[in-house]
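Example protein as discussed:

>
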Amino acid sequence: MPREVSCRRHRARRPAASEYRPYVSSSAPRKWNTGVVLTTLCLRNFKSFGDVSVPFGPFTLIYGSNGVGKSNLLDALRFLLAIGQGRSVRDAIEGHASAAGGPTATVMTGIRGGAQNLPRYAAQTSVFELEVTLDNEQAGKITYTVAVDTSAYKIVREELKAARHSGAYVFSTHPDVAPLKQAPDSPAIAARYYTSSPGRNPSRSFSSHEFIINQFTGRKAETVANERWADVVRRELAALTPLELHPEVLRQYSPLGRFTLGEHGENFAAVTWSLLARAEIDQTVTESPGRAWPNIITAARRDGLDLNDESLDDETSDARARLAAICSWLAELTPRQIEGIAVEWAPTNEVIFSLFEAPHDRPLNARVLSDGTLRLAALAVALLGENRRETFVIEEIENGVNPARVQLLLRLVETATRPGGGKQVIATTHAPALLDSLSESLRRYTLVLGWDEENETSVVTSLEDLPGLEEAEGTSSLGDLLTEGWVQMAADR
């Protein structure tokens, strides 16, 4: 049974939200995905992009008016996620519903517009290419390239390179040395793969309707070393996590057993319960007049989390530190006095998210919480609740946040994306208040999308590289420059 945690018995110092540091065990094995960062995405003939390179930092903010390509960039990231999930070329583009059917069917979202609208219209081609660069603490720079013919749902080029790999490539369909002759109408595509043997690298046939990186396992990878490089990329692409939180979803009961937060907030309460369980937070059971079943609550109040208990194991200590950080951030982000978070049980073995607000002793469940409070709570749990590698992709991150608190929102995300925490965030926004709240470090990773009229392509410019920015900031704030349209005009060509 979990250890009981009394809210009144323990009076540990309340840590400030900004003091939170993710726990990393010194005895934990070093994994290749530790410290992986998605650093660059090149898009060639993908939707509105001609040939554009997009740099990413730990926390990247993307501005741009309607129609300049922000959603198209997010579509490219969604396509890469589909590769990491092991989906076929067709399913990655068009989406897929599981064979189960009915309300329990798993629907995998495709790319907006489907195959017809993926290649850039002005290029008059059915082929697009994406190239993603990762930077890994142990593995160094890794580059993965894939080109797809959307008219046939097939791979026409795929390559994996790594700076610390012994060969010029891990595998390649178009090697510079000993090039391969590909048959355009064949259902297979040939690729050379690295071996340490003298002479040219051998080749092998793969299905052109599946991504080679997902077929490059076991004997097809030839060596454990080769497979390890491919696995780093697969894991990193699978870590891409679109997040578009819907309050109506966050208000729902969650069945226990589903502990992954969905794109729209599915399983939010169950994810919170999992964190409470790892922190060894006990249940309380009370009889409720007029109810046929008792009221069962698992709750953590911020003044009842003993973070100095040396008898706790590392996992429990880490979970409590995360709970304390989440409670502290919610207390700062919302005008109400948040005392703690909880989940309430239903007889169906489902749970619903709840908050303790002073001066109430009874928790307020998600059904009565505001949209903004729910979004902020779910975002805090997503960013701080798990010690695993994730790159969150968030459209209009400011949704539901009062302009007076956007600076706190930025601080929350910057805290969560510090080195060692395994989190990265790529977010779009329209909010002038966010621009006015940028820290110096975040300015470096703020991008503005514009439109190149002559070449009919979206273009990407770093905020600090906008022509005339220094002079313009002498008379107006960044937020005012955005509202007046100056930022967009400077980004357009």
Observations:
- The mean pLDDT is 86.
- The radius of gyration is 25 Å.
- The longest strand covers residues 37-46.
- Residues 314-333 form the longest helix (20 residues).
